[in-house]
Amino acid sequence: MNIAELLIRDFDIKISEYFNPESREKWKKSYQAAMKNIDHEEPWLTLIACYAIFGDQTKMNDPETLIAINSILKNCGIKHGLVLDKNDSVRVEEKLPEILSYREYLKEALRQDNFHLYPDRRAIIEEKVQSKQAAFEGNTNLDLKITGQKEGVKKHLFVEAKFLSDISYQISYNPIRDQIIRNIDTGIDFMVKNRDIPEGSFKNFYFLLLTPKVFRPKEFGTQKKSGLDVFQPQKSRLYCYKMLEYKDYRNLRDALPHRSDLTDNQWKEIADNIGWIAFEDLFINATKYNTFSGTVEKQEILKFAVERNLYQT
What we know:
This protein is of the alpha/beta class. The longest helix has 15 residues, at 179-193. Helix 10 (249-255) crosses helix 11. It has helices at residues 3-9, 11-14, 24-33, 42-54, 63-74, 100-112, 119-130, 179-193, 238-246, 249-255, 264-272, 279-288, 295-307, and strands at 86-96, 140-150, 153-161, 205-211, 274-278. The chain has 2 domains: 3-99 and 137-307, no CATH class; 100-136, no CATH class. The protein is globular, with a radius of gyration of 20 Å. Strands 1-2-3-4-5 form a 5-stranded mixed sheet, with helices on both faces. Strand 3, helix 8 and strand 4 (205-211) form a beta-alpha-beta unit.
């Protein structure tokens, strides 16, 4: 029995904590339906990588687990570093509400100039602009959200995960906005709504990209030697450029004009907390600190990682 068959069979007792209660049954059915081709499901890869470190989450605050996750975060490009002394929750496909300030800003901009390039999309936009409740972006399904603590202070890690796909380079009604800036905007909105910005500080919000290490530029941590290096993998994805661009707080500020109430110091805090982690490091540290739930899980998870060239035995 491979890791997919094992975890889907025992979904309720092994991986249910990775989903919000209201969406658990939905994801269980989704994974069961995808079993024949689940190897190509990026959310599944993210879930397996997290399961290697956190298991069923009953032992997520064991010393070995904390050391493992902190080792992963140690060299991910975050300016001042991040160390957790407690894990609260790890959720995949976390649904977060539409950003109302962005919706209102976009509606006003569209009233002045319906700038979309598709005629049919412009017609839909015209109708939406007239409605008070019409959504322009809708809810955001965040690939992974880790909530932890350091000395009693909550830390919120928003993670966008990509395996071989690239980020979306346009949003339905705004052909300029990209997936990374949308997720960062969602994180800012979350912090504000939850009043988790003590003294106006965003220092407890982090945005991380999770990909294979071969795509990670040196500015965010160690790179992986590969036969593909001659093709410059660190320049092969749009997110390679966008991640470097948003590390400059001025680019971050300019990409989110509806956040005009934020100060330059706040933008700097957000930009400083942008980092990049690699799938390989999750499997390597799970092995190094033996965070696997059991022998069978370890064997099948490492087989899964080896098959994807994310781990070497």
